[in-house]
């Protein structure tokens, strides 16, 4: 019943920007953390950013800190990922995932229960 639907992916030149959206529905728990991951061909899945929607705190991978921004719209129940200064090596599928927040929420090696289908981001040189 819980659904996460990503949108906003596309093709952009190196240095360009995109805004990804993760629309959440059917989620009834009072606590919610939403994370963005990406799968680059030939590499392991990589955590990108997390937002603790309970308080609005953010956590980023070192590789994207300063370039990407995660945010939320509580009315729309949507989490966004603003990607700026994109690099060709960041081409891949971007996924959002959700779970109740753990006490150790600010890390990328946790398992998430709910996942979206992903949205493709292509960065050309």
Describe the overall structure.
The chain has 125 residues and is mainly beta. The protein is 0% helix and 50% strand. The chain is built from no helices and eleven strands. Strands 2, 4, 5, 6, 9, 10 and 11 form a seven-stranded mixed beta sheet that branches. The chain is globular. The chain starts with a strand and ends with a strand.
Shape summary: globular
The percent of residues in helical segments reads under 10%
Spatial extent as radius of gyration: 14 Å
Report low-confidence residues grouped into runs of 5 or more: none
Layout of helices and strands:
Blueprint: E1 3-7, E2 10-13, E3 18-25, E4 33-39, E5 46-52, E6 57-60, E7 68-73, E8 78-83, E9 92-99, E10 114-115, E11 119-124
Features:
single chain, 125 residues, mainly beta
Concise overview:
By secondary structure, the protein is an all-beta fold. The protein contains no helices and eleven strands.
